[in-house]
Amino acid sequence: MIKLMVSYALMVFACLMASSTWGIHTQVMSKELLESCGLANGNRVIVTSVDDESLAKDRLERGDVITEINGKKLHTPQDLNFLEETLVSGQPVNAKVWRRNAFVNVQFIPVETPRSAFEPIDDPILGNVKITQITSGVVVSKVNRQGVLQEGDKILEVNNLKIKKVKDIKKALDADPKGLSIALDRKGAQIVQSFAIGNEGSFFSQTIISGG
What we know:
- The protein is α+β, with helices and mostly antiparallel strands.
- It folds into 2 domains: 2-108, Pdz3 Domain (Roll); 118-211, Pdz3 Domain.
- 20% of the residues lie in helices and 43% in strands.
- The protein contains 4 helices and 15 strands.
- Strands 8, 9, 10, 11, 12, 13, 14 and 15 form an 8-stranded antiparallel beta sheet that branches. Strands 1, 2, 3, 4, 5, 6 and 7 form a 7-stranded antiparallel beta sheet that branches.
- The longest helix has 15 residues, at 2-16.
- It is elongated, with a radius of gyration of 21 Å.
């Protein structure tokens, strides 16, 4: 009987707390805490922490109460997990958040399963960025110095080499140090950018965009 009660308690605890594939950790708020915040009883998803590699790191804070994602109300952490599974990776997420006694709107661009360690790339054209390995390739998870890449960009090709791993980018850059062609998926649009590096570091570019 005691073992059954312990198992039930663990199951309930797992339902009250959740970690997301976006790197956002949440739990259900107590009724007392909800009332002290002046929130409706249905809005109960509070952020407990955000992973360093998550693209929501600089957008969400510990203590934020997420009430809506893209207009859909959240009642439990499992609602957030369901949206993660159904929303398209790389598309903007608009969150309505209760923060310090006021509602604020927060936007970030998640990527699928941002669980693998990121690797840095430092290039005069690409910029200083962190790249994360995902199931179907690589994606820009953070931009430290602005270049042509943006957070959420999925890198498809570099110098006509299909990119499946971060090391493929480094290999393509080493193969042609005086020129660069990069194909991206940016928010559903296919972008191809070509650069040629001239004397004293000057370069020219051409951009082709399709879709979106």
